[in-house]
Design goal:
Helix 1 (16-32) packs antiparallel against helix 3 (49-65), helix 1 (16-32) packs antiparallel against helix 9 (202-225) and helix 2 (34-44) packs across helix 3. The protein is mainly alpha-helical. The longest helix has 24 residues, at 202-225. 68% of the residues lie in helices and 2% in strands. The radius of gyration is 16 Å and the shape is globular. It has helices at residues 16-32, 34-44, 49-65, 72-86, 91-106, 114-132, 142-157, 161-178, 202-225; strands at 14-15, 111-112. The chain has a two-stranded antiparallel ribbon with strand order 1-2. The chain contains nine helices and two strands, in the order E-H-H-H-H-H-E-H-H-H-H.
């Protein structure tokens, strides 16, 4: 995906159009990487992660495009509920519940800023941790998601809103790569014990794609406010 060099503002108005762009970019990235995600999952899981997520985000995007009147938070709740219903395995409940909590945190507001989004994304991570009982180092989604939020928060607290979303994506990708030497302690991969080491976690990989989609989605809002 081509990334613009135009800076991103932390105060840029994020709204329903932003959520639509995020889900569109996420669905596109997951579709493009479907086979790669499935190959990663074949090594340490059930070989269905890419297939299931591709189907789920396609269904979620269809619901988004059919729901013109919903505010952004409600729209994310709708996508989350769709993922829960349409994605098999652990990915559906985890990602679906995450996005549902992100949407609930954003509430009924028509627009929000990066600070509100950070709070909402943290609520989503807390739901993943609650459902999956995973921590950083367990070789899961959390290994990409948690460092992404930390990087985003550091940038915002330092007044570097222009870097927040890029830093989040970079940290998610670094966390994804850091799962390769880890031994899995949660999920299907944990059944392999030490044999799970040496493989990149598919959940951390799809999480990095979602943060990449987030970075891509926020740029048009930033460009309007520049």
């Amino acid at each position: 995906m081509t990334r613009s060099n135009r800076p991103i503002s932390a105060s840029a108005g994020l709204d329903r159009a932003f959520v639509v762009r995020w889900i569109e970019a996420a669905a596109s990235s997951i579709h493009e990487q479907r086979d790669h995600l499935t190959q990663l999952d074949a090594a340490i899981g059930d070989a269905d992660h890419g297939i299931n997520l591709d189907r789920g985000f396609e269904a979620g995007l269809a619901r988004v495009r059919d729901s013109d009147a919903l505010p952004p938070g409600r729209l994310l709740q709708l996508v989350g509920e769709t993922l829960i219903l349409s994605v098999g395995g652990a990915a559906g409940p985890l990602y679906g519940s995450c996005l549902r909590e992100v949407g609930r945190s954003l509430g009924e507001d028509e627009a929000f800023d990066a600070e509100a989004l950070l709070v909402a994304l943290r609520a989503g991570l807390q739901e993943i941790v609650r459902l999956g009982a995973a921590a950083e180092g367990d070789k899961t989604i959390v290994d990409a998601y948690a460092p992404a939020l930390s990087a985003m928060e550091r940038a915002l607290r330092a007044g570097r809103g222009a870097a927040a979303f890029t830093n989040a994506r970079e940290a998610a990708e670094a966390g994804m790569r850091a799962t390769i030497p880890l031994v899995a302690h949660r999920g299907r991969a944990s059944y392999l014990g030490p044999r799970s080491a040496g493989h990149q976690d598919p959940g951390a990989t799809s999480t990095a794609l979602l943060f990449g989609a987030l970075e891509a989605a926020v740029r048009p809002a930033a460009e309007r406010s520049a």
